[in-house]
Amino acid sequence: MTLSSPTKLELTAPTLAPHVQLGLHDDLVLEMYWHMLLARRLDERMWILHRQHQVAFHISGIGHEATQVAAAYALKRGHDFIFPYYRDLCLTLALGLTPRAMMLAMYGKQGEPMSGARQMPAHYSARHLNIVSVSSPVATQIPQAAGMALAMKYQNTDQVVMTCFGEGSTAEGDFHEGLNWAGIFKLPVIFLCQNNQYAISSPTDREMAVQNVADRAPAYGMPGVIFDGNDFIESYHAITQAIERARRGEGPTLLEAKMYRLVPHSSDDDDRTYRSREEVEAWKQRDPLLLARKYCVENGLLDDAHQAEFEQRAREIVDDADEFARNAPYPPPEEALNGVWGELPKI
Amino acid sequence: MSEITNIEAITRTLQQEMRRDPRIFITGEDVGKRGGVFRVTKGMYEEFGEARVIDSPLSELSLVAVGIGAALYGLRPIVEIQFADFIAPAFNQIVQEAARFRYRTNGDWHAPVLIRAPYGGGIGGGLYHSQSIEATYSHIPGLYVVAPSTPYDIVGMLRYALRVDDPVLFLEHKKTYRLIKGEAPDDDYMIPFCKADIKRVGSDMTVIAYGLMLHETLQAAQELMHEDINVEVIDPRTLNPLDRDTILSSVKKTGKALIVHEDNLTLGLGAEIAALIASEAFADLDAPVMRVAGPDVPAMPYARTMQDFFMPNAQKIADALRKLNAY
Question: Taking 50 as the threshold, does the pLDDT of residue B83 lie above it?
Answer without folding.
Answer: yes
